[in-house]
Design brief:
With 665 residues, the chain is α+β, with helices and mostly antiparallel strands. The longest helix has 48 residues.
Length: 665
């Protein structure tokens, strides 16, 4: 009560002494303060010309009287007591009320408002999806069928269009197998020559030829090469390094084909200034620059709250709107990019899917000992990845999910520093995706010093994707991460043209592939990560073997644990002693772990391999921005929180004992 009264007095237009006097008056029931002669309460105010009078008595004949105050008249003795009470009240007000009011206003009320704001943000439901989230996992055939259903195609080729209208699907599959055989024979001969040291060829020459073959064969084989680059547990490290440079590129189709597809889907009228020359052409689609011909608006009653929160740059600004009012998401003239799928790509991927599964079965039957590679399962995983990108509506909804997860006001450390394009779902389709054009530049040696603070932001973003949202961008290569500066007026600029007062921002593109773990997979991965971080090689090796997908071959567990322990010990401060974790590359350690798994023929789940690849990319970017970048320092808070939420307190305690008791990281 004292704090509230004191604050009310302070907010009046009186001086501090007057505020104390007001509080004193309230505490001891005085009629007014002495320094500004404020009037007492209404029940105590003298009435002038409005005193009670009998009926019929004129106002002039009535004497003006002042009613007696409600508190007793003071005597000499009462005056001393009143003076003491005034002094006591003043002392309490100054030494108790003042600090209490200050603490309330500076700490309690802002914290309560912030918690109420966060509660309101978390109360908003997630955006509603019309396409299920594609989750790759340990059941490749189920994933393949799900991806085919979402892409609205049939694995038998009965729904194929384009060339399949004139050529039976089995003939198309046979033709793709023949083309593959014609290109694969020279590559196989190079591998034989490299094996026996003929013609001066080495394995790297054969790897380069394989990369060219995969690029030539189209999107399915490009995805196969990209998948192989993330699997050092299956393929040699040198081959993975060569295939990691495999770009998702293809010859572009003509501008006339793009315009015809836009007209077919009724999107051409919504755009203007469409550039017929593509900005980039991938193996599945290509992108063009354009502008919106009219405002892109959504009606609040037509979209769910999660979608509206994801699309709006300021979700709180839409709260005052009525249920049937329009919300302007983008104004006319806003630059956009139009992603258009290549014609005939569905038929080609379907044919390649059938061909790869047949080849996987044939090789597994002909070559003994190839069960470890499980080529049939590998073919199904790769084809599922390719088919999952044949519905661009899924990519639009992935963008909505990421924008929702990093919407404004949710995280202080990422506020205004992480951005994703806005998908314009209402003018997109299965074959065409329209999204906002985002200014930015890839990281390079020239601009790295300008974006140095973004190393921590990028890693925090990835950790939140993994440990909090369980929705990870599965294609985080450097080409899909742009950097820019946000000027005070809200415009964007590159590092060499930024304004004073601007701040850096990270832009994430192309979330066509995402990874989401089941509860069991997530628990196992978090446990594995904690085992690596704490240097427990035996526990980590046991986890890897128990969670390996089939087929499981007989493994020398003692040797496996010994080799894993040698890697884990090198990152444990307890076992190594005094050293700086900033000098340790955990990406290299994860790569060594995968290499040991390949040597001992222990397979790793595809999701794990994808996450490890993302860790390697993230750490490499962090060290490029900050030479003393420390992965564990950024991951430890998220990891401890996730371990405690999964009831893995033993591992959490071990991590705390390992790192929090050895001094600074």
């Amino acid at each position: 009560t004292v704090s509230v009264l004191y604050w009310r007095a302070l907010t009046s237009n009186c001086l501090t002494a007057c505020a104390v006097s007001h509080l004193t008056a309230a505490l001891i029931n005085l009629s007014a303060c002495s320094c500004c002669a404020r009037q007492p309460p209404l029940s105590h105010q003298p009435t002038r010309g409005t005193t009670d009078r009998p009926p019929g008595t004129s106002l002039a004949s009535q004497k003006h009287t002042v009613p007696t105050p409600s508190f007793p008249m003071t005597t000499a003795s009462a005056g001393g007591a009143l003076s003491f009470r005034k002094k006591a009240a003043t002392t309490v007000a100054v030494f108790v009320g003042g600090p209490s009011a200050a603490y309330y206003m500076k700490v309690v009320r802002p914290r309560a408002r912030y918690e109420a704001h966060l509660a309101a943000l978390h109360a908003v439901p997630r955006p509603r999806r019309t396409t299920p989230l594609f989750v790759s996992g340990s059941e490749p055939m189920r994933c393949l069928k799900t991806a085919a259903e979402n892409a609205k195609v049939d694995l038998s080729g009965s729904t194929a269009r384009g060339v399949a209208r004139y050529v039976p699907f089995p003939v198309l599959v046979a033709w793709r197998m023949a083309v593959l055989f014609a290109h694969a024979v020279p590559v196989a001969l190079k591998y034989l020559a490299a094996r026996y040291g003929l013609f001066g060829l080495v394995y790297r020459d054969a790897h380069e030829s394989l990369r060219t073959l995969l690029t030539t064969m189209g999107p399915s084989f490009t995805k196969l090469g990209q998948w192989a680059a993330t699997r050092p547990d299956v393929f040699p490290e040198e081959l993975c390094g060569v295939l990691s440079t495999l770009f998702d590129a293809a010859p572009p189709h003509s501008g006339e084909v793009t315009m015809a597809m836009l007209r077919e889907h009724g999107i051409e009228a919504k755009l203007r200034n469409i550039d017929p020359e593509p900005l980039n052409s991938g193996s599945i689609a290509q992108v063009h620059r354009a502008e919106l011909a009219e405002d892109y608006v959504v009606q609040r009653s037509a979209v769910d709250p999660g979608t509206l929160a994801a699309l709006s740059d300021d979700p709180s600004a839409t709260k005052a709107l009525g249920a049937h009012e329009d919300v302007v998401i983008c104004k006319a003239g806003t630059p956009v990019v139009v992603k258009v799928m290549h014609p005939g790509v569905r038929e080609q991927i379907l044919a390649d899917s059938a061909a790869l599964r047949f080849i996987g079965d044939a090789v597994g039957w002909v070559i003994p000992g190839s069960q470890f590679m499980s080529l049939r399962q590998t073919a199904e995983e790769v084809c599922a990845l390719a088919l999952s990108q044949l519905n661009l509506q899924r990519e639009a909804e992935n963008l909505l999910d990421f924008r929702f997860n990093f919407r404004p006001g949710l995280y202080d450390d990422c506020e205004g520093k992480v951005a994703f394009p806005k998908p314009l779902v209402a003018i997109s389709s299965q074959d065409v995706l329209v999204e906002t054009y985002e200014v930015g530049e890839p990281l390079s040696d020239k601009n790295a010093k300008h974006y140095a603070p973004m190393g921590k932001v990028a890693m925090d973003m990835f950790m939140r994707m993994l440990f909090e949202h369980n929705l990870v961008h599965a294609d985080l290569h450097p080409g899909n991460i742009l950097f820019r500066f946000v000027n005070p007026d809200g415009s964007f600029a590159l590092a060499n043209k930024r304004q004073i007062g601007s701040w850096p921002q990270l832009v994430v593109l192309d979330p066509g592939l995402v990874t989401s773990l089941s509860d069991r997979e997530r628990k196992n991965f978090v446990s594995l990560f904690a085992a690596v971080a704490s240097g427990d090689g035996a526990f980590g090796a046991q986890l890897m073997y128990e969670n390996a997908p089939p087929p499981k071959l007989s493994v020398d567990m003692d040797g496996f644990k010994r080799d894993m322990g040698a890697i884990f010990d090198s990152v444990s401060p307890v076992k190594v002693g005094s050293f700086s974790l900033s000098d340790v590359s955990f990406g290299e350690k994860f790569a060594q772990v995968m290499d040991v798994m390949r040597q001992h023929k222990v397979r790793v789940d595809m999701n794990y391999a994808t996450l490890v690849s993302s860790f390697i990319v993230g750490e490499g970017m962090g060290k490029r921005l900050e030479p003393d970048f420390n992965l564990i320092e950024h991951a430890l808070p998220f990891l401890l929180k996730c371990l405690q939420s999964h009831e893995l307190q033993v591992l959490a305690a071990k991590l705390q004992e390992t790192y929090l008791t050895v001094g600074p990281l």
